[in-house]
Amino acid sequence: MNALDYFNARLEATVSPMDYLRLAQVEPERYFLIDVRNGPEHVRSLTIKDAYIIPQQELQERLHEIPKDKEIIVYCWDVWCNTAAKVAAFLLERGYKVKELTGGIAAWKEMDFPVSNSLNVNPSDNCGC
């Protein structure tokens, strides 16, 4: 693989936080963002706003929750974490269209983009109506 092929493949498989934010604002119904980080809930309580939380370790049992008609964007901790890449490969093998959010939650927070804290959410506030 030459350098051009490498960079084209990288661009095909990833999306930057800035690009994802812009794209999701224009066509929010096109994307399905998943936080795939593993670990105790208290250390992963801060998530990207509107992300679905499906840890990698639960993916097999929760695959039915992921729509096949949307572009799936997965993220994990940061550039050193490869959990999102593992999930992306798993989903691609099953026919999903997937990209990894580069830099994970760390890059998102660094850009001061919208986040949610799942520990501050009171389940009784969500009546489902």
From TrEMBL:
Coiled coil: none
Taxonomic source organism: Metabacillus niabensis
Gene3D superfamilies in the cross-refs: Rhodanese-like domain
Domain of life: Bacteria
Record-linked SMART domains: RHOD
Stretches that traverse the bilayer: none
Protein's name according to its UniProt entry: Rhodanese-related sulfurtransferase
Domain named Rhodanese: residues: 27-117
SUPFAM superfamilies the UniProt entry points to: Rhodanese/Cell cycle control phosphatase
CDD domains: RHOD
PANTHER family, per the entry: FAD-DEPENDENT OXIDOREDUCTASE, OXIDOREDUCTASE
